[in-house]
Amino acid sequence: MTQRTKQIHLAAHFPGVNNTTVWSDPRSRSHIDFSSFAALARTAERGLFDFFFLAEGLRLREHKGRIHDLDVVGRPESLTVLTALAAVTERLGLAGTVNATFNEPFELARRFASLDHLSAGRAAWNVVTTSDAFTGENFRRGGYLDRADRYTRAAEFLATARELWDSWSPEGRPRPFAHRGQHFSIEGEFPVERSPQGHPVVIQAGDSPEGREFAASAADVIFTRHGTPEAGREFYADVKGRLAKYGRSADDLKIMPGVTFVLGDTAAEAQEKATEIRRAQVSPQNAILALEQVWGVDLSAYDPDGPLPDIDPDPRSQLVQGRVKIGDPLAVADKWRALSEAKGLSIRQTVIETTARQSFIGTPDQVAADLTESVRTDAADGFILVPHLTPGGLDDFVDKVVPLLQERGAYRTDYEGTTLRSHLGLREPVWKG
């Protein structure tokens, strides 16, 4: 009997807080108008993607006291956009990033249950946390949580939301709920009956040991970032290996890295286009901004085409606020210097090489082959595609790569179910009555 090719899962990311979009390209359109969201979502649905993914920021990032150049100012709130998209799509999953640090379980559980009903079972929640006081200033509670505390709060937050979703039986019978815990003490009656999926799909994005453990214990999908297939396989084996102690199987969690792609008629053409795109994404100005994020000091006097600074970073700096730190500044600086010296790279070239996502570059046939091989060798279960153009950046992939994946038997030729759980091959959660 011929073994069935492992199936690829695909999703589409609409960038917001990003260094992906090539804003200078005349084909780049609004990141605010609903028509852009609708166009990208419809393309993803035409390509039979599992879901459409929206990120979210709770405060505009600042650099030297000014709004960061790469932030989208005026971006609509994610769940509002997804609810509108439910009316212009039929099968595509709708995934929104919403913070568990500065929200409350009852309200968020109600909003996601509502989206799941309005979309007939296509809602997903990307659970994220925030640890910085800069973001906390936008909220009444203010302040911030220590790194360990934000994950314990997120775990209790998600468990509480699931208690609320389970307060209605599958037959439509409600019952009062009561939760007593370290972070939440609530009781009452949940006003929204059990949703079509039982629970909306839960996505988690985190690569730390705490994040990996949280994903293994509670998530349905993990959105990650790895630059090589080798790193992807290490992450895949590690996280999947944590599932058994929570009574879960490997199929209960899908691992989907965020990736980019560049297509060309020849491999050389695709590589040339990829180089042009990366140079457009990392302008001389943005190269210095990226450098200052690590060093924490004003480096505007440095030449982007010159060598990296020979001074050490300031780990206590508040030069950049509201942006996730790349890592330990001293360790990152040492790594960048070693790479720069080994390859003779300038500041801009170093930033280009160190800040890129994993990318699939080549002819449509080569990209289809590489995607299939990555999933076959357990570097991932699928991919969240981050196009460099919005909203038309997925068109070539859907038109040229998807048919080749289908010919290889690695991708669906039609949606087999109606809910996001069915697209992902996830079981409906057992009702805990």
TrEMBL record:
Residues 30-373 form the Luciferase-like domain. Keywords: Flavoprotein, FMN, Monooxygenase, Oxidoreductase. InterPro entries: Diverse_substr_monoxygenases (IPR051260), Luciferase-like_dom (IPR011251), Luciferase-like_sf (IPR036661), NTA_MOA (IPR016215). Its EC number is 1.14.-.-. GO terms for molecular function: monooxygenase activity. NCBIfam families: FMN_nitrolo. Belongs to the NtaA/SnaA/DszA monooxygenase family. This is NtaA/DmoA family FMN-dependent monooxygenase. It comes from Streptomyces atriruber.
